[in-house]
Amino acid sequence: ALEPKIAPSILSADLARLGDEVSDxxxxxxxxxxxxxxxxxxxPNLTFGAPVCKALRDYGITAxxxxxxxxxxxxxxxxxxxxxxxxxxxxxxxxxxxxxRSLSLVRDAGLRCGLVFNPAxxxxxxxxxxxxxxxxxxxxxxxxxxxxSFIPHTMEKLRQARERIEASGRDIRLEVDGGVNAxxxxxxxxxxxxxxxxxxxIFKARRDDxxxxxxxxxxxx
Length: 221
Ligand code: DX5
Ligand code: ZN
What we know:
- It is a single chain.
- The protein is 32% helix and 18% strand.
- The protein is of the alpha/beta class.
- The chain has a single domain, classed as TIM Barrel (Alpha-Beta Barrel).
- The protein starts with a strand and ends with a helix.
- The model has no long low-confidence stretch (mean pLDDT 96).
- Bound molecules: D-xylitol-5-phosphate and zinc ion.
């Protein structure tokens, strides 16, 4: 299995001071930044786009930025996020007209790419593209909002995704997103995940100016 990684979702950060929030979670031990892009069309909420990703790069953030596209269509924004300095781009297969092409757009630019599965989206979307994905992202909540509860059935789906990865013989990351916290992360890891998105459980932990305010929560994960 791959080394575990923690990816705080900036959806729950204090967006009025995003640069400092990102620097501080990284200084507290986070491995990458999870960047949730919502378009009020594929999901019923609106967040931030490629200019905000570019702004974090200009601010000096060098850690991987893991862009989770909850948008339809996807290809135009894939181009925009490549330009903006993304490191990883995942999208929902049912939101792309041509999944193989969308994956190739990301791969050909030298970024890591992956597919995202909603709680009720079957893993069979992977059947013909397993050799083209670097990561599989399982949603453990319905996408659109932070602060929801982990859907228990995800545990079984994680085991199934892990079996597919082992059968592929490739180093594909298995990421989980939604309702992850210090209490359930151990069980989620045991089910096969190696990359953990956490939004509210990290950013709601402490809200003051101490640059080490996230040390203990990330340390507990
Ligand atoms: C939901 C987003 C998640 C969200 C997770 O659509 O994809 O990344 O920020 O938030 P928590 O960790 O609060 O469930
Ligand atoms: Zn996400």
